[in-house]
Write a structure and sequence with these properties.
heterodimer, A: about 55 residues, alpha+beta, two-stranded parallel sheet, flat, B: about 525 residues, Rossmann fold, 3 domains, 5-stranded parallel β-sheet, 18 helices
Chain lengths: ~55, ~525
């Protein structure tokens, strides 16, 4: 079974990165979810981000 | 006018929270303009354009919050900062426990939630690829709400997801229902046999809601992001999702929804659909396509997509709830026109859902011919100024020109009031056509916010001896947090005619506008 069809048969477990209301909506629906207290990586330095993006490949 | 910038260093709040806060600041007496934003380059340029940015603000980073205000006096400025401080205090108290349970980054979240299978990502666009790539690398499917993500980045992310056998929904994906849980802006619908994939968020909401209102359930509803069926993305995620629904035992009927795709991509999707042994309903709004295959059904509107899927799901003869035949709609239209004055002749649509606006344009043009819009069917009908309606107009208030630095009207319906009153004060407006979108992600009581505006609009017209007809559709379900019936009741109390679907509302509004013109001709002849 491929991973998408596996997802359809699994319990949904979510990581929320960003808008807090999306996290609250999932909690309301009894979804297991962990919220990431997100802040811009590299302290918001865009040059550093482009380096991180390259390292991330 | 005094302009002031205050920077809160290392103080990150998400854009939805900050835009809602900003929209509360401008109405403070004495305030000319006010905005609270994170100091990303894009936000700083928005503030620069509106004349709010000062040297302190220019120094802020994406990690710093900028409070910028232009006001008549110090008292107004003090009230703005007081409001912002209260917001921060409330937010910090409310999220105190959340922060304790929160992870610092995606990697630590993965260790806190073993077996995590979906990442919902809604960070500013320039960080979206970085976060999405991490999630995919760790085997998570991704729902990427962020916009302002480059096309090359989108293709790179989607190719990486395909290589890993994962879903990469988005960027700019607003809606999905996975395993009967609403993700982003989505409705609470019962489980069932109909699976959907859409490159059109409110299109997916409308069809899943119409199915639900008629007792039909959803197996899965996947989003792809609005550019998926355009070149050069070439339907990567629609095809990936389609194959999964084709292989899914719980999906008996598949529905595909998009605004017009590139022709060759539409053909590619149809050719995939022709190969599967499940019925496939294709709704590519505004696209003329054909198939010889008996298992593939091409429909023109979201309403028809829902009806066809219901008919295929072995409950033949089912009609969209409260469906009215043409004679009934004509009789409502006639009653409305009788109350109007002769100069009233135009339809004015005011939408929060982009695909709902698009469907309304398609339906209305059947009766009225070309309709002006900020997102028109034909480029020649583009409004020269989106803030002013011409002739028959349907405006999508969720488009970029209305939402840069402001909350989306589905989150803050109060932002629609100004335009509603503007239309009501135009002596040539006959009918106002509105959508109300419910579900998770949306405002907790949009009808409660819009109803006073509808009453005010009707009163403004009445004061000038006119009758303003208001036609509304409510995209939602009984199971939604807002409760569809409660919302309909509020709108009807305000004097709106609530129709069962967006297409029906558009059909009625178009008839009213058409007949009011015909009525006017008769009046002039007499």
């Amino acid at each position: 079974m491929n991973k998408i069809n596996e997802l359809f048969s699994q319990e949904l477990k979510v990581i929320n990165v960003g808008i807090e209301s999306f996290y609250n909506s999932l909690i309301d629906q009894n979804v297991k979810v962990v919220n990431v207290n997100w802040k811009p990586p590299a302290g918001g330095n865009e040059k550093m981000l482009s380096i991180l993006n390259k390292l991330n490949r | 006018m005094i302009i002031r910038n205050v920077i809160k260093r290392n103080s990150y709040y998400d854009s939805v929270n900050l835009m809602l806060l900003s929209s509360k600041l401008s109405p403070i007496p004495g305030v000319d303009k006010a905005a609270v934003m994170m100091g990303t380059d894009m936000n700083k340029s928005l503030m620069e354009e509106s004349g709010l940015l000062m040297e302190e603000g220019r120094q802020a980073t994406a990690n710093d919050m900028i409070i910028a205000v232009s006001a008549r006096d110090e008292e107004a400025i003090a009230r703005v900062f007081e409001e912002v401080d209260n917001f921060i205090k409330n937010k910090d108290e409310k999220t105190g426990s959340l922060q304790e349970e929160a992870a610092h980054n995606l990697e630590s979240a993965l260790s806190m939630l073993p077996g995590a299978n979906l990442a919902v990502i809604s960070v500013p666009g320039q960080y979206a690829k970085y976060e999405a790539q991490k999630a995919l690398r760790n085997g998570c499917h991704v729902f990427l709400f962020s916009d302002n993500v480059g096309l090359e980045e989108e293709i790179e992310l989607k190719d990486f997801a395909i290589e890993k056998g994962l879903l990469m929904m988005g960027p700019d994906c607003g809606t999905a229902i996975i395993n009967n849980r609403a993700i982003g802006f989505a409705n609470v619908v019962p489980p069932g046999d109909i699976g959907l994939i859409a490159a059109a968020g409110t299109g997916l909401q409308e069809v899943t809601c119409l199915l639900s209102q008629n007792g039909f359930g959803i197996s899965q509803a996947l989003g792809t992001g609005g550019r998926d069926l355009k070149e050069p993305v070439n339907g990567r995620m629609m095809l990936q999702g389609f194959r999964a629904l084709a292989a899914d035992d719980n999906t008996k009927v598949i529905v595909l929804i998009s605004k017009p795709p590139a022709q060759e991509i539409a053909e590619k999707v149809i050719s995939e659909a022709e190969k599967v042994d499940k019925p496939v309903v294709i709704c590519f709004l505004g696209q003329k396509i054909q198939t010889e295959c008996s298992g593939v059904f091409i429909v023109d509107t979201l309403e028809e997509a829902a009806k066809k899927a219901m008919a295929l799901e072995e409950k033949e003869g089912v009609q969209t709830g409260n469906a009215l035949d043409t004679a009934d709609i004509e009789s409502i239209a006639r009653t409305e026109i009788e109350k109007m004055s002769p100069e009233q002749k135009y339809l004015r649509g005011n939408f929060s859902g982009g695909t709902l606006c698009y469907e309304a344009l398609l339906v209305c043009q059947e009766e009225l011919g070309g309709i002006y819009s900020n997102s028109p069917l034909d480029p020649s009908l583009k409004l020269p100024d989106s803030s002013k309606s011409i002739s028959h107009t349907c405006v999508d208030l969720g488009e970029d020109e209305f939402t840069r630095g402001r909350p989306h009207p589905m989150i803050e319906p109060a932002l629609r009031k100004e335009r509603i009153l503007q239309e009501a004060n135009d002596p040539e407006t006959a009918v106002l056509l509105l959508d109300v979108v419910l579900g998770y992600g949306c405002h907790h009581d949009p009808a409660g916010v819009l109803s006073p505006s509808i009453i005010e609009a009707k009163e403004a017209a009445a004061a000038k001896g006119r009758y303003l007809s208001v036609v509304v559709s409510v995209c939602g379900t009984q199971l939604d947090p807002q409760n569809r019936e409660d919302q309909i009741e509020k709108l009807e109390k305000a004097g709106a005619i609530v129709m069962a679907s967006n297409a029906q509302a558009a059909r009625l509004a178009a008839l009213i506008a058409k007949k009011s013109r015909e009525g006017r001709c008769c009046y002039e002849q007499n």
